[in-house]
Automatic annotation (TrEMBL):
PANTHER family: DNAJ HOMOLOG SUBFAMILY B MEMBER 9. Residues 16-77 form the J domain. GO terms for biological process: ERAD pathway. GO terms for molecular function: misfolded protein binding; protein-folding chaperone binding. Residues 65-80, 90-162 have a biased composition (Basic and acidic residues). This is Chaperone protein. Residues 65-162 are annotated as: Disordered. Keywords: Chaperone. The lineage of its organism: Eukaryota, Fungi, Dikarya, Ascomycota, Pezizomycotina. GO terms for cellular component: endoplasmic reticulum. InterPro entries: DnaJ_domain, Hsp70_co-chaperone_J-domain, J_dom_sf. It comes from Paraphaeosphaeria minitans. SMART domains: DnaJ. The keyword Chaperone applies.
Length: 162
């Protein structure tokens, strides 16, 4: 793959070039150059190194060695990280919102169940009161009948005594 090809640049942009070189973003030009030279000595194919690793180190060094390219890379990297962080926050917020909605739905269902149970308990109380009132009414009617019979019996006894 030619050194300046688009595929080579895309591959380099998808990796963190500073990590590939073993330095931080804050490394000076001299530190980047020293790290590059040390890595090249380790991975050079003439010294039994891997050719793919050698190409990877060269590709990683292409951007940080040029101040304009490095500045552009750092800006793009920060924007990409900003966007990635934004996406991550949105996904986290969406997950939190789904969890919140699920909790709210459960609470609504729990409240509805509690309301249904209260209504059923109140209905049982109303039915029990209605039965008590019916029994009380029957007891009163029975008492009234017994009173009437007792009165009739007394009147009947009075007339018989005369």
């Amino acid at each position: 793959m030619p050194r300046g090809s688009h595929a080579h640049q895309v591959e380099a942009e998808q990796r963190d070039l500073y990590t590939d070189l073993g330095v931080t973003k804050e490394a000076t030009d001299a530190e980047v150059r020293r790290a590059f030279r040390e890595l090249v000595l380790k991975v050079h194919p003439d010294k039994q190194g891997d050719a793919a690793d050698f190409r990877k180190v060269h590709a990683a060094y292409e951007v940080p060695r040029d101040p304009a390219k490095r500045k552009r890379y750092d800006q793009q990297r920060d924007e990409d990280n900003g966007w990635a962080n934004f996406i991550r926050r949105m996904q986290t917020d969406a997950r939190a919102h789904r969890e919140y909605e699920a909790r709210m739905e459960k609470e609504r269902a729990d409240r509805k169940d509690a309301e249904q149970k209260r209504w059923e308990a109140a209905q049982e109380i109303r039915e029990a009161r209605a039965q008590d009132e019916k029994k009380l009414k029957m007891d009163r009617e029975e008492a009234t009948r017994e009173k009437a019979i007792a009165q009739e019996d007394r009147l009947h006894e009075k007339h018989q005594d005369k």
